[in-house]
Amino acid sequence: MNVKKIVGLLAIALLLFFVFTQPDNAAGSVTSIGTTLRDGAESVIRFVTQLV
């Protein structure tokens, strides 16, 4: 079995465990990641807009 596949399956298992045991914290983490990604995208958009 490929090491990447094993690590991927372990990551998914850990994620599911986290969601089932601590759903409030998991939701907060996803919200935080989404906010970070949105802020990054807005920064890139602002940068590109300033170039034009």
UniProtKB/TrEMBL annotation:
Keyword Signal: yes
Stretch forming the signal peptide: 1-26
UniProt keywords, alphabetically: Signal
Official protein name in the record: Small secreted protein
Organism this protein belongs to: Pseudonocardia zijingensis
